[in-house]
Amino acid sequence: MIKNVLIIGGYGGVGKNLVELLAEEGLHNIFIGGRNREKGEALRNKLLKKYPQANIQFKEVDACSARSLHAAMDGINLAVVTATVPDYMEEIARVAIQQKVDLMDILVREDVAGQLKKYEQEAKEDGRIFITQGGFHPGMILPMMKVACSEIEEPKEAYVYMAMAPVFDNAESLKEIFYEVNRTKPLLLSEGMWIKAKYTDTPSMEFSSDFGKKACYPLNMPEIYGIDKELGLKNAGTYVAGFHWFIDYVVFTLAVILGKISVNLSQNVCSWIFYHFSKTLKEKIPKVEMIAIAKGEKDNPQTSKIIIKSDDGYLLTAQAVYALIIQYIRGSIQMPGIHLMGQIMDEKELMEVLSELKVTIQYQKN
User: Fold this and answer.
1) In this structure, what DSSP letter does residue 48 have?
2) Cβ atoms 182, 259 nearer than 8 A
3) Do 346 and 147 contact (CB within 8 A), yes or no?
4) CATH code reported for the domain at 141-313
5) Taking residues 61-67, what's their average pLDDT?
6) Dihedral sign, CA of 119, 122, 125, 128?
7) For residue range 72-97, what is the model confidence (pLDDT) as tens digits?
8) Which residue, 43, 237, 312, 315, is the most exposed by fewest CB within 10 angstroms?
9) What number is the average pLDDT over the span 191-201?
10) Rounded to whole angstroms, how far apart are CA atoms 205 and 217?
């Protein structure tokens, strides 16, 4: 069945890549959603020259306006939020319920899932499927852990490490990072108990030559909580490598200090500093590397490692969401309600689609 798919933020870093992936497939009616008609129409015209078989249109939509959202979602089956609008997700979800539209997003902020949960009962009653926290981070964390664990007998430890180049579209897209710094406390699974991470929990990881050896910091990743019971693990955690000494030790320290006064102040000031400082660095493409490691018991020291690399983090996020949409379209995701991508995604299908999209995936086992 052909779906009418609306990409809110469709001409942004992730959005334009997702629109192109769907256009290349040619099986959907694609609507580029955004406030800037000129940018939307320019992307539409560019892609139609490349994929003349595609059905691409532009819809003007302002995520801050309920009236605009209602007009944009009229006749839509699936809306995908790729714009950085975490503070408006509750309104977007409310309109989606009223317009009978399924919803996905790539937002990182943990509280977005809480906003959507308010509509859990209505979503279930109306058969709506809402999937939040899509993309490679956090959406691929748990699937990568599961795949790594499936490669060995009786896994007892699982970890994911990420390294990302400090390249972002704009300062607004960085605010979620500083929200997490001030509002969340990472948990690690240690000997079967979920405990708060300490400042000393900073293991080093040897990434490829693009990043080298880096200290890594714990991340709050709700999608993995419960993996201990599901897979019988004793130890687990998710970590991200530092960006740059100035960002790691000056900007993030300032974020914590300002956060004690006002989280909004911390977000606004530090996202501005981060963004403008990153413009002075040599990195111009948002490279990403992810490493998932699973280990067995000491008397059965098997180790499995999966490495995923991309020269473009925006593209990798779009590819992960595209894989999610493929599962949704095929009907393998049918349970109405509110879900995290990492928990509802079939990990094997994810890897298959990423492979088909020529994403670099390496498997190692010893």
Assistant:
1) H
2) yes
3) no
4) 3.30.360.10
5) 93
6) negative
7) 999 999 999 999 898 899 999 999 99
8) 312
9) 90
10) 11
Tokens of 157: 């430890």
Look up the pTM and report it.
0.92
Which amino acid is present at 268? N
| Residue ranges of domains in the chain | 4-132, 141-313
Position 191 pLDDT exceeds 90: yes
pLDDT in tens, 277-324: 998 888 878 899 999 999 998 777 889 999 999 999 999 999 999 999
Name the E strands within the chain.
4-8, 29-34, 55-60, 78-81, 102-105, 129-132, 157-164, 187-190, 193-196, 204-206, 213-218, 235-241, 288-295, 303-310, 337-340, 360-365
At 1 the pLDDT is: 58
The CA-based diameter of the chain, rounded to the nearest angstrom, is: 62
Count of CB atoms situated within 10 Å of the CB of 61? 27
Q: How many CB atoms lie within 10 A of CB 348?
A: 12
Residue 226 gets the label, from left (phi > 0), alpha (psi -120 to 50) or beta, of left
222 preceded by a cis bond (ω within 30 of 0) = no
| Side-chain half-sphere CA neighbours of 156 within 13 A | 11
β-pairing, 78-81 vs 4-8, is parallel
- Name the token pair of 237: 């955690």
- CA dist., res. 302 & res. 151, Å (int): 9
In contact, 294 and 142? CB cutoff 8 Å: no
pLDDT, position 2: 65
Q: List the structure tokens of 259.
A: 């956060």
Residue 186 identity? P
The CATH number of 4-132 is 3.40.50.720
